[in-house]
Design a protein that fits this description.
It is built from 22 helices and seven strands. It starts with a strand and ends with a helix. By secondary structure, it is α+β, with helices and mostly antiparallel strands. α5 packs antiparallel against α6 and α13 runs parallel beside α16. The strands form two sheets. Strands 5-4-6-7 form a four-stranded mixed β-sheet, covered by helices on one side. Strands 1-2-3 form a three-stranded antiparallel β-sheet.
Length: 484
């Protein structure tokens, strides 16, 4: 049972208050205590997030966002100055809160950032952006940075996994502000009371609506950006000694009561024998909503193994859990925004069938309004299979009807990039190379064939070396900044 936020064991003994348990777990993380699988997962997610963030430097609306944030004032607060930097872009003059906002927007703006599927959350967009902002205040040791990454992901994913119903609010932003606040508390090595106050201030700033997802607006990424910035501000306020609510998670008006319909936080926290949740995060192979990946995987198999073409396709139906239809089952339409198209399976499938893949460079206004693609998109559909689990991304099944009379059925039991079906090192480097080239970093270093892959490999090696570095920003910034 649960009572006033206190978690009880099966024998009835008091374990710990929810907030106490989150705080203690985050503050006690140490890099040297993690096994190799956990450490490898953390490095892979940092590498992926940095590359995706560089690509976000050239995402739709990124320049407008940076210009707007720059107008909020120059470097301020306790230590923010010219060390601040934006992934792929401008250096200097950014306060930690500003840098956290812009970098989080860039990491999430193209739906290419990693996702914890059971939590329906994107932990690294907020956590990585907030920690980069902190690391720009003063030198931060790489081992502490990575331990804080793991701590932050644990909070975000646990809050998401605790939910027993589908998201009513935008969980990547809401859970993200709490995870990022405790990740920052871990990096600063603050007392427990201060970390708990950071959670309280984070509750005051928590926000994020699914309406932006329904309409396919770039405010989805702005909500993630707001969460990263708010985490920095929450931790700053806590460190300044300003009191905040104690029961930010479990209180009658705390996170669980306000933002989720049904939860089981006790079970989510009690899984002490499992691996750290950083090992449960999926790295995306396509720059689209994760819910589209199962259908795109089945389509790719139909193209490669069965020779499916646009000319031969009559109908492609992907039967999958209700979350898939809810997130990416929207119709293709001529006035789509880029953000809408990334969440429209029908259009994405039409793009893949005609172009061979879904690339970052494909989301142009010309293609978004292409009548041929829009007409082809009408042949694709998602069908709810009635699965009871509101957070399930699979399994799924594609039923393909062909003009030559064939009927092809393709099952999808797992999605590429998931922990049990991970991208290999070559695939990770290929993705990073595409991101760095799209963000202009490879061109900045002199365009030759292979430059993007060389830049990706250099970044990968730098991330793997982070645990032994005394200054994360000094190590990474030269590899992440376009010099124009």
């Amino acid at each position: 049972m649960e009572e006033s936020g206190i978690v009880f064991s099966a024998s009835g003994g008091r374990v710990a208050q929810i907030e106490e348990q989150f705080v203690a777990q985050a503050l006690n993380t140490r890099w040297q205590d993690f096994d190799r699988a956990t450490q490898s997962a953390a490095c892979a997610l940092v590498f992926d997030s940095l590359a995706v963030g560089v690509a976000g430097y050239c995402a739709a609306h990124a320049a407008q966002v940076s210009a707007a944030v720059a107008g909020w004032g120059g470097a301020c607060g306790s230590g923010g100055d010219a060390r601040g930097f934006i992934l792929g872009g401008a250096t200097g003059g950014w306060s930690p809160a500003q840098a956290a906002f812009v970098n989080a927007f860039q990491i999430h703006a193209q739906e290419f950032d990693c996702v914890h599927e059971p939590a329906v959350a994107h932990p690294m967009a907020t956590v990585c952006a907030a920690l980069l902002a902190e690391a720009a205040r003063a030198p931060v040791h790489g081992a502490d940075f990575l331990a804080a990454v793991i701590a932050g992901i644990e909070v975000v994913a646990t809050l998401g996994v605790a939910a027993r119903t589908g998201p009513r609010f935008f969980r990547p932003a809401l859970a993200g502000v709490f995870g990022s606040a405790l990740a920052l508390a871990r990096l600063r090595k603050v007392p427990r009371a201060t970390a708990r106050a950071a959670l309280g201030h984070a509750l005051s700033f928590a926000s994020g609506t699914m309406q932006a997802h329904v309409e396919g607006k770039p405010t989805l990424a702005l909500q993630v950006a707001h969460a990263a910035r708010s985490a920095v501000e929450a931790c700053d306020l806590a460190c300044a000694g300003i009191p905040a609510p104690d029961d930010a998670i479990s209180g009658p008006f705390g996170y669980l009561a306000l933002f989720e319909d049904e939860t089981d936080i006790r079970s989510a926290l009690a899984q002490t024998d499992r691996a750290w949740r950083v090992t449960e995060v999926s790295i995306k192979p396509f720059p689209t909503g994760r819910a589209a990946h199962g259908g795109l995987t089945a389509l790719r198999e139909a193209m490669v193994d069965h020779g499916l073409s646009a000319e031969n396709l009559v109908r492609f139906t992907y039967r999958a859990p209700p979350l898939i239809a809810r997130l990416v089952g929207r119709p293709a339409k001529p006035d789509m925004t880029v953000a809408y198209a990334r969440l429209c399976f029908a259009w994405l499938a039409a793009l893949q069938l005609t172009q061979g893949r879904v690339a970052l460079s494909a989301f142009t206004q010309e293609r978004l309004s292409d009548p041929v693609l829009l007409a082809l998109a009408q042949r694709f559909a998602i069908e709810d299979d009635g699965t009871a689990d509101p957070a399930a991304f699979g399994p799924g099944e594609a039923i393909v009807e062909c003009r030559d009379g064939r009927s092809i059925v393709i099952g999808v039991s797992r999605q590429p990039g998931a922990p049990d079906y991970p991208l290999d090192e070559a695939e990770l480097l290929d993705k990073a190379a595409e991101c760095l080239a799209f963000g202009g970093l490879a061109q900045d270093r002199g365009t030759r064939e292979g430059d993007a892959h060389a830049a990706a490999k250099a970044l990968h090696e730098a991330v793997l070396a982070i645990p032994g570095q005394r200054d994360v920003v000094a190590t990474l910034k030269p590899l992440l900044t376009v010099r124009r």
